[in-house]
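Review form for a predicted model. The reviewer records the input and the model, then writes brief findings.
Reviewer: anonymous (R2)
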Amino acid sequence: MASLSRSDVVGAFAVFTRLLTIGMQIVTNNLIPDHKADAFAPNREIAGNGDHVVDVIFGGFTHWDSAHFLHIAEYGYTTESRFAFFPFYPLLLSLISQQATSQQLLLVMSKHSALLIIAVCINVVFFTLAAIFLYWLSWQVLKDEKMAFRAAILFCINPAGVFMTAAYTESTFAMVGFLAMYLLEKKHPVVSALIFMLSTATRSNGLVSCGFILYFVMKNNFRKLFAVYNAKQLKTICVTLLSMIAELLLSLVCVVLIVLPFLLFQYFAYVKCCTYNANFGFFQIQPLSQAQNEQTGDEDFNEFGNTPDRSTPQLFEFPAWCNNTPPLIYSHIQEKYWNVGLFRYYEIKQIPNFILAVPMVTLCCFAIWKYFGRRWNYIKYLGLLPRKVKKDSKSDEFLTGFYGDDVFVYIVHMAALMVFNVLVVNVQVSDFTCDLSETVRLAQITELLSFQIS
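Model under review:
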């Protein structure tokens, strides 16, 4: 029998931890009463015995943001606040449910239960792929296969495990983010940008991935500038300069590709909320019946004018943000519904959430301090200047592991997002969210822990 590769071991361990998480969720959700939170909690339709079984097994995975994603997958974007949740994941759930569910299945369970099963299965698969892609990425960046393996294993048991299995976008975002970063490290910027597009369609944080593309191109061009400086032939200089210009243009195309899903989603929201046309297929705002309204818990489902008044301009008033320049619904929603803004979360009642974030923020700060302290001579030039590698042990120490050259951009990225989390957004998300920024943060923390263990 052939021995398993490290990738196989990582994948198997990822599946094991997902099954363990599901098992722990079954026990705790059925023994511990739910917290009475001021959050969206729709009444679930009971269509048959299957709903009771699904609720016992997966009921704990339907709270908080999961409720929003499952609602969007089933009904579309029915209220303004739903536009805080980007469309790729719920659209994927909706498309798979259309192909995987049958009328016979819906006789024993509701569509909500079918969507929940699909959501958990998708996240188990995507989390497993994310762990494998993290292993590949870490190996590429750290140049140390054993440390990369430990990083991937630690990723599988991270505190965000339950959110990686519930109907959240964390696993989807982690998977596409790690894969895109790996492809960029392998010098495939266009393919990487196309995958980063999916990350932006999944979460708004995907916009930050533009920085990876731009830094990759900037670093390559600086090295070509040094080649031009040392070149003696005019032909070599001209070819190098043309190559630099072509790479800059290509980087702009990649940035446009990454930003495009965000802009399209904002455009959809504008058309639906600020015009008299609300038809966009899956994104269509459909008026719910009174029974559906009571079932979904959407008390404000008519806020977009899903009544005959929408066709009567004098009886319909558009939201105030429609007059903003630019008219972006996302910033409006984050401020109105999630209290996002500089120091807006700094309230006495939020002290427990700041305490909750202290361990992860401390680990981030420790990682940043260790890297900057050891590699300052490299960092002060932003890692752009090529350096000659001497054949001695001190230089070789910097070539692999946590202090390697290629780690720099991820450390900077982690630092920027950590500051943003602490100052602007709900600080407790530093502990469990796993979007592109948080997966990078988590990867670097696990790599640091692996380094210390070794």
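Findings: The chain has a mean pLDDT of 81.
Further findings: Residues 234-274 form the longest helix (41 residues).
Recommendation: see findings above.
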